[in-house]
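Onboarding guide, step 5: your first structure request.
Type a short instruction followed by the sequence, for example:

Predict the 3D structure of this protein.
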Amino acid sequence: MKTIRPRLRRSAAIIAFAAASALALSACTAGGSAGGNSDAPKVLSVASSASVTTWDPVRSFSTEAFYMGNVYETLLMKNPEGASEEFTPGLAKEWSVSEDGTAWTFELQEGATFHSGEPVDSAAVKASIEAAAEYGGASFIWAPLESIDTPDDKTVVLNLSYAAPADLIAAATYGAWIVEPSALEASKDDETYFEEGIDAGSGPYTIDSYKPGSEVVLKAAEGYWNASNTPFYSTVSVQITPDAVTAQQMLTSGEVDLATNVPLENVQDVADQIGAEVRTGNSPNNFVGFFNTLRPPLDNPKVRQALSYAIPYEDIIEVGAYGFATQSHGPAPKGIFPYSEDVPQYEYDLEKAKQLLAEAGVTEGLELELTYSSENPNSTRFAPLIKDSFAKIGVNVNVKGMLWADQWAAARDNPAEAQDMFVVLYWPTYSDAGVDNLSALFGSWNGTDKPFFNLSYWNSPEYDALLAEAAPLTGSDREAAQAKYEEAMDLLVDQAPGFFLYDQQAVQIVPSGLEIAPYNENYPFTTFFASIKPTA
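The system replies with structure tokens like these:
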């Protein structure tokens, strides 16, 4: 058995939030302590676009994750890239894995309790994971799970049908929250059980009140078990504010202390206005494009390579992301396994593009259609740049913005007659882009059923074989898995069924009077309020 014995500490602070068009966590004043009375309630006011589709922690698979990480806890927390340790203990204090990667043992924290006062024991963990695997919104992440053993009240053994990274799965944003068993039982056949704002977690906050589409108020949990993560703010009041400009105005006027959805183009101006620091970090979001490999001449790798050289990557980053991005190294976003800067990139080289087109026998007059989601302002800004650049090599591109649902349906319904190029913003469900991005986006399509996300319709047995070797190694030998995944990504770049634009950065506006930790790319839709406190 390989045993992991982490130092028993919580990260000083973890803040995360992601939106489809821009990632911005903004902060202003040090927040609402009344007067100078240290005993007075301390209120943190927040403007967020995050709505609540369900308060059910098992069925949750949407933007309510913004709140969930404050009310519920996972066995482990995945630390951001560059941290000294890969994980921080959550409800598990220690964990180990068998040599073959199929048995994971978690030792639970002593004294951990739910808000009800009931202990967080092995029976609760077993019931929570089994519920997530059976009917969870992200149930598919537990596909490797075969059975769960509970040899005593504080020991949980996850038995897998094949080697898999149960540590990453147990630390996921969705499908891994541990829930008080009586609430699980009550909610299993009643999807409305949690909807009045009932909570059954063990986290630092409880749900105090909820006005659908308007407001969420969280209260610090009485008797919270983890003294090292006790919240500074006794109340967090979140105003649900879908309009980013309104959120910006609320922030700059001092109406709120934090705003998670300030327009990306205004971040520096807002920071200057309130005297704050702008920080950037990894996010799990990246922009990927697909070439329709069923359509001549895009069925020729040399043509796809040519077009990849004709994409103005730097300009796309400046226009699409206002500079808050880095050019992608394949489909794994920066900071998420198995990202590697050793994976090659295409440079912007029009002469090379013309040369390759000529070698492929493609003369001027090639007509292509590129589709993108019109709801995404980043794509709306940068798609015309591809059209303009391709025109310089004699390729005419019809750029077509579509509602996401229509774009996706058109691409899946009739691949042979679908778009030539498809642009999408994508992120992994949990911190393993090997089993998600690499497989979902480019794993071979069988040619009969509707494709799901492989909208290049590419089929490569060689690529599939590399993924099949890499996936089980992730649970037993992560370095070996990394090497196999890098081989697969090298093949992707060489064969160019898709084009890899940029990894979007998270942006934080951090005031001098507020302590906020760097963004954690592993929890893109969650803000952990217990970690926020004034600097003085």
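Each response can be followed by summary notes, for example: The first helix runs from residue 65 to 71.
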